[in-house]
Design goal:
By secondary structure, this protein is an alpha+beta fold. It has 2 domains: about 100 residues, Orthogonal Bundle (Helix Hairpins); about 300 residues, Bira Bifunctional Protein, Domain 2 (BirA Bifunctional Protein, domain 2), CATH 3.30.930. Helix content is about 40%, strand content about 20%. It starts with a helix and ends with a strand.
Length: about 425
């Protein structure tokens, strides 16, 4: 959430930012509401001053045994007016809060301006796509033929956009999770966390999923309480220190978590309907950092390198993209996408997004730190990134390591996690 003072004092900049993102406030006007708020505050202050002066006069008349009934009647009217103005002020402030929760973060100056992905900029490519002596298949064909991915039985159980993993498919998913966690904790300095997978609306508001993206969430009800299935471990990890005061010496905090993720994909009708690319339930290893404003952009670059290490160890070709203003997420000030090469699709596809949300989430979640023992509290900067999306990594392994006979070579980095298995062949 942006600071109200920033929004009201920089109208042109906010409107330009919304235009660059291809968004609007849909007729909502925070500037007029703020003017009403200021006027109401001024009126209340004037009336309360009148109450204080009149109170002193009433007391004086009382001591002098003079009549103060007319002044008391006037003060009852003043009290009623103050109450009315305070109710109006509360309504205006609720309206302002609703608008502020709907305004996206301001993009960093280094972000390319553009309406969509066409304006995003390629930063680097690593690894060359393999030349196949045969036409490579897509992962859903490979998985079905090997008997390790089953979309038909998943549809029978849960409907579209779910998958059942069998045998080496299940084992490969588990191996990828363990491999990623080991890499990030043992070599990249992250602290492993297992967070709750059900969270409150307040928790989702803290990271920006609510109220704007409620349609993308799965909501459950336990007794009288609503809880939401997490769309990513970013949500509970970022909120771990909500309402706490952190000390600067503890920063940056670096967390990693494996979790299932649940997304309704309400806005993606007809997109990637086959295979594992866009599922309602999937696994992800998520990276989150809490750091200072001075170091957050440096920490973002480091997070991208951390995520890249997974692909480098698996020897998968990829590229890094700097997203444009119209292509990056609601809470982000700057985002890099890492896209892995999928030979079956003959395209690079997103496998990780690493974002610096600056103080946007921290202001919503009251995530603060004290620069020094006597210093004024400041909001931390929050960062998040996939390290990586596990299902999409499995897709990349199947498609890049496929052989002409339909079997799959197991990347060397994963063999210790697969019990030494070197090749995946047809399951029973």
């Amino acid at each position: 959430m942006l600071d109200l003072k920033f929004v009201t004092e920089h109208k042109d900049r906010v409107e330009a930012m919304l235009e660059a993102r291809g968004q609007s406030l849909s007729g909502k006007d925070p500037w007029s509401l703020d003017a009403r708020r200021r006027q109401a505050l001024q009126s209340v202050e004037q009336l309360r001053h009148r109450q204080r002066v009149a109170g002193e006069e009433i007391a004086r008349r009382g001591r002098a045994r003079e009549d103060a009934s007319e002044l008391k009647t006037e003060m009852k009217g003043v009290a009623d007016e103050i109450k009315r103005l305070e109710e109006e002020l509360a309504a205006v402030e609720r309206g302002l809060q609703e608008i502020l929760l709907d305004i996206p973060n301001v993009p960093d100056a280094s972000v390319p301006v553009g309406a969509d992905a066409a304006a995003s900029v390629e930063v680097r490519r690593v690894g060359a796509p393999r030349a196949f002596a045969f036409t490579p298949k897509e992962h859903w064909e490979l998985g079905a033929e090997l008997g390790i991915l089953d979309f038909e039985r998943a549809a029978k159980l849960s409907g579209a956009r779910f998958a059942v993993y069998w045998d080496a498919g299940a084992r490969l998913e588990r191996a990828l999770i363990q491999f990623m966690l080991d890499l990030h904790t043992r070599e990249r300095g992250y602290r492993e966390v297992i967070p709750p997978y059900l969270v409150t609306a307040e928790t989702l508001t803290g990271t920006g999923q609510l109220p704007k993206f409620e349609g993308d969430l799965f909501r459950t009800r336990a007794g009288e309480k609503d809880l939401y299935l997490i769309p990513t471990a970013e949500v509970p990890l970022t909120n771990l220190h909500r309402d706490e005061m952190l000390e600067a010496g503890r920063l940056p905090l670096k967390y990693v978590a494996f979790s299932p993720c649940f997304r309704s994909e309400a806005g993606s009708y007809g997109k990637d309907v086959r295979g594992l690319i866009r599922q309602h339930q999937f696994h992800k290893v998520e990276l989150v950092k809490l750091t200072t404003p001075e170091t957050s952009m440096e920490e973002l670059e480091g997070m991208v390198v951390d995520a890249e290490q997974v692909l480098k160890r698996l020897e998968l070709p990829y590229r890094v993209m700097l997203l444009s203003t119209g292509d990056m997420g609601f809470s982000s000030a700057k985002t890099y996408d890492i896209e892995v090469w999928l030979p079956g699709q003959n395209a690079y596809r997103e496998i990780s997004s690493c974002s610096n949300c600056t103080d946007f989430q921290a202001r919503r979640a009251a995530l603060r730190y004290r620069p020094d023992p006597k210093g004024k509290p400041r909001f931390v900067h929050t960062l998040n990134g996939s390290g990586l999306a596990v299902g999409r990594t499995l897709i990349a392994v199947l498609e890049n390591y496929q052989r002409a006979d339909g079997s799959i070579d197991v990347p060397e980095a994963l063999r210790p996690y697969m019990g030494g298995l070197e090749r995946i062949t047809r399951s029973a």
